[in-house]
Amino acid sequence: MIDSSGASHRLSGKASYYYKQQNTASGKWFKPHYMWCAHKTLPLGTKIRVTNVDNGKQVVVTCWDRGPYIKGRILDLSKAAFAKIAATKKGVINVKIEIIK
């Protein structure tokens, strides 16, 4: 995601959401109203901009957890973050993500 020079790049793929309160990979307690996400490899604490490619809506989230573990998905958003960019009834959306910090 981030090379040794600190440069970032963008990824595209599918994102879903999660909502169950639980401990995260970072040791922080997850709550569905936080602007958080889970990603398999991003360093914990990384801030990313997530854009719904279907409607252009964006949200900034912090990666504090690992996942998703469903093939073909690149990101799990908190329910609140997902709701900022799509109706939760959709369940899975196409996104692009950009590391911002």
Description:
This protein has 101 residues and is mainly beta. It has one domain: Barwin-like endoglucanases. The strands form two sheets. Strands 1-7-4-6-5-8 form a six-stranded mixed beta barrel. A two-stranded antiparallel sheet has the order 2-3. Strand 5 and strand 6 form a beta hairpin. It is globular and about 35 Å long. The N terminus is likely disordered.
| String of helices and strands | EEEEEEEHE
If classified by CATH, what would the architecture be? Beta Barrel
- What would CATH call the class? Mainly Beta
| Alpha-carbon Rg, integer | 12 Å
Q: What is the straight-line distance between the termini? A: 12 Å
Largest β-sheet summary = 6 strands, mixed, barrel
Q: For this structure, what is the CATH homologous superfamily?
A: RlpA-like domain
The structural class is mainly beta
What is the 3D form? globular
Chain-averaged pLDDT: 89
User: How many β-strand stretches?
Assistant: 8
Low-confidence sequence ranges = 1-7
Summed up, the domain count is 1
CATH topology (level 3) name = Barwin-like endoglucanases
Q: Number of DSSP helices?
A: 1
Largest sheet, spatial ordering of strands = 1-7-4-6-5-8
In percent, how much strand structure appears in the residues?
Answer: 35-45%
State the helicity in percent bands.
under 10%
Strand and helix layout:
Blueprint: E1 10-18, E2 22-23, E3 29-30, E4 36-38, E5 47-52, E6 58-65, E7 73-78, H1 79-85, E8 93-99
Parallel strand pairs: 1-7, 4-6
Antiparallel strand pairs: 1-8, 2-3, 4-7, 5-6, 5-8
Provide the descriptors you would attach to this structure in a database record:
two-stranded antiparallel sheet, 8 strands, 101 residues, disordered N terminus, Barwin-like endoglucanases, 1 helix, 43% strand, six-stranded mixed barrel, single chain
